[in-house]
Structure formats: structure tokens, C-alpha cells
Amino acid sequence: MTSPATTEADAATGGTLDAHVVVQRRDGFRLDVAVVASAGEVVAVMGPSGAGKSTLVSAIAGLARLDSGFVRIDGREVASARRHAPAAQRGAVLLGQDARLFPHLTARDNVAFGLRARGVARSNAAREADAWLERVGLGGWGGRRPSELSGGQQQRVALARALATHPRLLLLDEPLTALDAETAGDIRGLLHEQLAAVRATALVVTHDAVDAAALARRLLVVEDGRVVQEGPVQRVLAAPATRFAAAVSGLNRIVGVARDGSWRSTDGALELRAADEHSRVGASVDGVALAALVRPSSVHLEADRGTETVPGEWTAHVVRLEPTPAGVRVHTGDPGVAVDIPADTVAALGLETGARVRLRVDPADVRFVRVTA
Amino acid sequence: MTTVNRAAAHRPAEAGGFVPPILSVPAIVGLALLVVPLGALVVRVDWTTLWTDITSPEAVSALTLSLVTGLIATAVCVVLGVPMALAIARSGPRASAVLRAIVTVPLVLPPMVGGVALLFLFGRTGPVGAALDAWWGIRIPFTTAAVVLAQVFVALPFLVLALEGAIRTSGLEYERTAATLGARRWTILWRVTLPLAAPGLVAGVILCFARAIGEFGATALFAGNAPGVTQTMPLAIYTAFNGSGVGRGPAVALALLLLVTAIAVLLLVRAWRPGAQR
User: How far apart are CA A109 and CA B276, in angstroms?
Assistant: First the structure.
């Protein structure tokens, strides 16, 4: 993923964001949220539907007006109650749930669009667009039209198009929501890699704690138009202040230590590996306290056949079975890990309290975060 | 992507839908009503004199006048109609409904009425006509300019309505996306809004041109029937069947020419598909 044309972009760093967004909607809803991001910082925004997250990014992008407050990008005031700089002049690019690729343009022309709009000559813009497509794993796909691309590929092109403009601020509004789990995982990895590569300043709106933990350092929990909790992602998820925050952090969070680039349980018996760069960096210093984050639905559960376990696998006993709308949540002990499985699997395995089971997680489903304080 | 095509290969039993089969009878009658008269026209063509009929001075003059006025009228419609369509598509729901109704009026109005109305406005005693005559000595009625004006009056709604629908359907989201990518208003218009509405624009232009060269009623009343000045093809054909001007043979030949032109234009539109939409 390196090419000569990208080195300049690598040297650039995103701008700063200082915003206090107040939007009064006619239906009585009032959004009043302050958010700050330093250069190169990725901030996640989580909240239930209707909390005002999308309004927040729209107002910062310049697609909605402020009733009060301000938006400053690189210290320049682009919006206040009286001022409303056009979206085109803010240097903030919005990437939403839907890729919104221009259907009449090829992938290359889509990526080149922002450059052309800034007056870059056609051939230079095309060359730079091809380099960006290469970076997002779509080298050679430049001539395709959006209708010929899968949802994941479209989102890759949309990311390339956003990054190609060297935005001072990148606004990601649920960029993975419309994708299936596997594709979302790929794009999440790509986002993480590229945000880090261009040192982008970004605001990531998400409903998924995995996204927040994987992409951002700092997390804002917005409920009912206000910030209810704010801080480093792991601290917020570890100590949720509200019911929503607790619900979103419904992750298995297993504290252990880093060793040889992977995660070990404190007794050393269990080893987990993670696929993404961010996690591996987190595990790079031996002996630091490290939390492994795993979604209950990402843990594979099967009957214990008594064979040797490999890294990523362990045996445990069932502590409790709890019915959920989607099936059954199996709570296992030592370490305490919750596993979501379909109800028919429970019947097929004859699971009951005290049964021995074998658990396994794929490195792609594991995130490591350093435990602070 | 390819799985879609493969699925289409398995043609299910209900591929034809659930329409009662008996309805195919009126459908075929309707189709015949559209096609058979045109066949009768073709049958009446005297192929031996076709070339001389089409190239006779009267016919060439009517044909040239029709094409020139039709093209000018279409150009005027594009210049005025595109901004109109943009304005209507981007107005609030109530304003756009009112504007659309106003634009539709000439469409449902008998063209004769349009001709009378234009005559009352631009005629020597009309408010605008009198002013033009008094200040600059310009008289519009019964000139080639009147032909163009009549054509614009009847053809403009076609272009505006076709384009406005296309712009409204493509929505605001792509324009918003373009704006956050740094594109200014004119860039967005040229590179996003109009290309996305291109199918509507092309359809609108074709309909507009076809309506303009076929215009008869408003032209007859407002512009008259002077050969070489205001006698367009439809008027020449009408005059020929009334027993004066170009002969009946040339009239049939001209009618055939209009028909062939129309079919050629339709085929052109079908062959050229903007973007990848289908």
C-alpha cells in the first residue's frame, strides 16, 4: 500500500476541530453538544437513534445551520448563529452509511471529483485517484462504475474519494452500518489503517462499541442531544455512566497482559491474537496490562472433545444460560466470557449449567486495548 | 453482481405477471390504431416521384424553415427551461406544485388558443405588441420570429416537466456529497445535477423538438401561412391537402419525411444511454 504519489499525503496531518453545536429543531428537540479534536485525533460519537449524532455531523459539515454556538476548523470560525460558510469551503468531508458514489462517474472519476473541484488538472487528478484506489485495495478497478461494485467496494471508493481531498476534518457517519459483518470488518481495518496513515482528524459516529474501540482514542456518548459521558474509549466502556453506554459496551472485556505481540490471561494459560494493526501495536510492549475486547456473538462455542487447545481456543464451564431475543447468552467462567448462540445450538449440544465447552475466537474478531490506570 | 443475471436465466412461470389474458385484445386493437394509419400513409407514397417531391423548391423551403425554427425554438426552450426546471425542483412542495400546474397549462390548452393569446399580447393592439411597434418598430406577428415564439409556447412545458421530474428524482444527497467534497454551485450543477438528470434532459429536448416541428395551430393563427417565411412543414402539408401551394404528392412525401425523422430521433434516443442506468 505504498506508492510515490501518496508520500505527500502521508506527511500531512488533519486539522483541529473546536465546536459547540446548538441546533433547535421545530419538534422541540435541542442538540447542544461541544466536541473538540486535536490534529490527527479520532473521536468516536455514540448514542441511541435520535440522539442527534447525525445532526451534529451535518452541522459541522455545513449541511445544517447552527442556532447558537460555533464550529471552528483549524481555528477558523466556519459557523455560528450568524455565519454559515458553505460546505465546500470548510475542508470537512462527510462519509456516510451510504457510499453515495456519483452513479454517472467511474470509480476513478469519483475519487478525482474533489481534486477536480479544487482545480487539479484532469490527468493529475486521475493519476492521484488511481493511487488512492490502490491504497484502498481497488487497484485496477478505476474504470468501473458504482453499479458494478459491491457495497464494500463502493465504501472503499467513497473512503478514497474523501481522503483524496486531504480533508482537514473527516466526518464518518455510521460508515459500516449498511455492510454485512465480514465486509464491515474489512472496511473497519481499512479505515483504521488509512486514518492512521494520513493522520486524519476524524469524528466517527457509530452505534458499535467495536468501531469506537478500534478507530478512536476518545469517546463521546450523546443522549437526547447532550453529552452524557466523555473520555478515553476504554475508560468510558469500562465504566459506563448510563444505561445506553452499558448496553453499547456489551463487549467481553478480558483483562490480561501483553506478551510477544499477543494477549495472555494473567495465569498465562490462555493466549489470544488480534488481526488488526492497532491491536498488535497495543500488545507490542511485554507485560503491560491489556484488555481483549470480544463481542459475545463472535465467540464460537462447541462441545469439549478434550483435545489440545491452540491459541485463540480455551475450555470453560457454563456458569449460567440466559435467553435473549436472538437466542441464548451462555455465561462461561474463568475467564468470565459471555457467548451468544442460537437456541437450537443449545439443544444440539445439550448445554446446561456446569457443562464443559470449548470456546474459540478468530483474531479478526478480537481487539486489544491497553488498560489505563 | 453476476448472480443476478444467472437468476434471470431461470424464467419462472409467472414471468408474464398475472394480467388477465383477455386484455391482450384491446391492447392489440390500440396498437393497431397507432400503427395502421401510418402504414396507410406509407402505402400512398408515390415512390417514383418521391425524390423530386421532396426536393421541390416549396418542399425544401418548408423543410428548411421547420428545421431552423424548430432548432432555434428548442435552443430557446433549453436556455429558459433548464433554469425553470431547477427552480421548480428545488422549491418547497407547495410552490413547486403551483409552478408545475402553471407550466402544464399550455400543454393541455388547444394550441389554437395559445395562438390567439399570443396574437392578443404581441398583436399591433396588444400591450406588448403596441409598445414594441411604437418604440422600435418591431412587429412580431406573421414573421418567422412568430413561428419560433409559437413553437416555444407549446414545446417549453415538455422540456420543463421531463427535466424537473428527473432532477427531483435524483434528489439532494449527491449535491450535498459534492458540496462537502469542495465543489461550488456551478461545479455541482455541471458535474452532478445535470449529468444525473441527463436522461430527463435528453427526453425533454427530443419531445420539445418533436413538438416544435409538429406545431400547427398556434403557428397558423399567430404566424400565418406565408411560403418561405412562416409556412412550416405541417402548414405546407395542410395547404397541399386544401388544393393550393405544394401538390398532394409532395404533401404525402413531406408527411413521410416527418414520420421518418420522428422514428430516427426515437431510435437515436434509445441507442444513446447516458451513464450506466438502464
Answer: 14
Q: In tens digits, what is the pLDDT along chain B, a chain of 278 residues? A: 444 444 444 555 666 778 888 999 999 999 999 999 888 888 878 788 888 877 878 778 888 888 899 999 999 999 999 999 999 998 888 999 999 999 999 888 888 898 999 988 888 788 887 788 778 877 778 888 889 999 999 999 999 999 999 999 888 889 989 998 988 899 999 999 999 998 889 889 988 888 888 888 888 888 888 877 888 888 888 887 776 555 667 778 888 888 887 787 777 766 665 443 43
Measured in whole angstroms, how far is the alpha carbon of residue A13 from the centre of its chain?
20
Cross-chain CB nearest to A103 (options B176, B182, B275): B275
Determine, for residues A100 and B173 on separate chains, whether the beta-carbon distance falls below 8 Å: yes
Q: Does ipTM exceed 0.90?
A: no
Alpha-carbon gap: B163 to the closest alpha carbon of chain A (Å):
17
Concatenating the DSSP letter of every residue in A202-260 gives EEEEES-HHHHHHH-SEEEEEETTEEEEEEEHHHHHHS--SHHHHHHT-SEEEEEEEET
Q: B239: which residues sit within 8 A by CB, 6+ positions away?
A: B225, B231, B245, B246
Shortest alpha-carbon distance between residue A86 and chain B (Å) = 8
Give the residue among A101, A100, A99 at the shortest CA–CA distance from A109.
A101
With a threshold of 0.90, does the pTM exceed it? no
What is the spatial distance between Cα B177 and Cα A99, in angstroms, rounded to a whole number? 10
Cβ contact A113–B1 (<8 Å): no
Nearest residue in chain B measured CA to CA from A171: B180
Q: What is the enclosing helix (H) or strand (E) of A172?
A: strand A169-173
